[in-house]
Amino acid sequence: MKFIDEARIEVIAGDGGNGCASFLREKFRPFGGPDGGDGGKGGSIYVVADRNINTLVDFRYSKTHHGKDGEPGRGSDCYGKGAEDVYLRMPVGTLIIDDVNGEIVADLTEHGQSELLAKGGEGGWGNIHFKTSTNRAPRQKTEGKEGERRTLRLELKVLADVGLLGMPNAGKSTFITAVSNAKPKIADYPFTTLHPNLGVVRVSHERSFVIADIPGLIEGASEGLGLGHQFLRHLARTGLLLHIVDLSSFETDVDPVKEAKALVKELEKYDEELLNKPRWIVLNKLDVLDEAERKKRVKDFVKRMAWKGPVFEISALNREGCQELINAIYLHLEEKRHSAQRAEETSMTEEARGISSIDPEDPRFKILED
């Protein structure tokens, strides 16, 4: 299936049915009075997050989605039937934005989450509602309201715990293949990865996390070189970035430090928030170096980068050092989850204390004496 992570669609909710102006006609009841029913409501359009879908390809070719109109009211106090609502199923991680004003309409982060995209129009009133003691034969009725109409921009941001960054051919696809169940294309030329790949990393039978591999960045991506920045959005929801660096190249015109710094600059141009995410350096392809050369290159890289964060030495090809990296990632993610949970519990406790503690000087709680 083709991977599509952007689309534009138009959603048009159904109009409400018109109300009816009618009068009762029965034998022996010449003045039966008004009996015009209301129109039915128009069909609304909802979106539902579905974890079994991983692309927006259905919305690339089906751009307009209509809700049905409500039926008009009829005589004999018959109300029009309301139209059924339309449900569009989209991948978990889809961000839905109003293309006119830029407002975020919905952010689908959980399976089964449902959000309203366009509300159907209300049905019009029949003349039965306008009967009064002084107006016993009303001919008024109202028309149904129009349904909402919106042009929406869909952006898919894959949900992953860890994201991979690196230049083309740094070994990202080999790494995700070595540690997870993902099977991306691997070759000895740049840009073999053309769309994001997700893999589940199993630390044990009951412990796992999700890792995302995106196409490599090159210097000048912000100007559209290579594949540009179009896939960086998929790292926005990750909690940790792994910067994969190839230290094996013996070519004099390739400087790993220069490439690493260029990638950091591209991150800064794209999104300051993404740049400030926790980021670890992972030095790859060290199996082709002897022990002395390996130590020399690692030390030189860290010194010239002035890097203060974690550094891991691996070989994705023979999986050397991969298990230690996986364990460290899982511990980091668990600590983040526990910290967030503790912060939430503390916030709830403080809120409860604020509700239970009453200041007797607060005029809102002052007891009025007789």
UniProtKB/TrEMBL annotation:
EC number(s) per entry: 3.6.5.-
Chief location category: cytoplasm
Keyword list, A-Z: Cytoplasm, GTP-binding, Hydrolase, Magnesium, Metal-binding, Nucleotide-binding
Organism ancestry: Bacteria, Pseudomonadati, Pseudomonadota, Betaproteobacteria, Burkholderiales
GO biological process: ribosome biogenesis
Similarity annotation: Belongs to the TRAFAC class OBG-HflX-like GTPase superfamily. OBG GTPase family.
Basic and acidic residues composition bias: residue spans: 341-353, 361-370
Gene: obg
Domain OBG-type G: residue ranges: 160-334
Protein's name according to its UniProt entry: GTPase Obg
Spans annotated as Disordered: 129-148, 341-370
Compartments, record wording: Cytoplasm
Hydrolase as UniProt keyword: yes
Function: An essential GTPase which binds GTP, GDP and possibly (p)ppGpp with moderate affinity, with high nucleotide exchange rates and a fairly low GTP hydrolysis rate. Plays a role in control of the cell cycle, stress response, ribosome biogenesis and in those bacteria that undergo differentiation, in morphogenesis control.
GO MF term list: GTP binding; GTPase activity; magnesium ion binding; ribosome binding
Record keyword Nucleotide-binding present: yes
Cofactor section: Mg(2+)
Any single Pfam family the record assigns to this protein: GTP1_OBG
Protein residues bound to Mg(2+): 173, 193
